[in-house]
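Appendix B, record 7
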Amino acid sequence: MPRARFAFALAPVLAHRRGIETRHRAALAVALNEYAAAGNRLDELERRARSAQAFGLHRGFLESLNVARDAQAGMLAALGARADLARDEVLAAAAQTRALERLEARRRREHEARELRAEQEELDEVNR
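Structure tokens (predicted):
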């Protein structure tokens, strides 16, 4: 008797969950890249402010650098919060995906066990 093919009833849901997880991972990568770029810009502003101060440049210029640096620090904090949220979304999506993957593996093992029992019963019938 030919073996029945395993079909996971929730396969479309699992595929959908994997897609969601992939999109969340991509969003996290973008958020982390933006955070790193903002950090680099902040480092550059701080370097320029130190240089300007060391060379005794005009006070108005120093003040404008400080304002820009403060704004960039605020932007960095906001991007850090966004990256943290994106990371949380990836973790939640991954947990949902893993739960369905574990269910699929369990159902596959159950299917294989049923198939083996049926095959063994068939062999036992032939040997009687």
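Remarks on this record: The radius of gyration is 29 Å. The CA atoms of residues 117 and 123 lie 10 Å apart.
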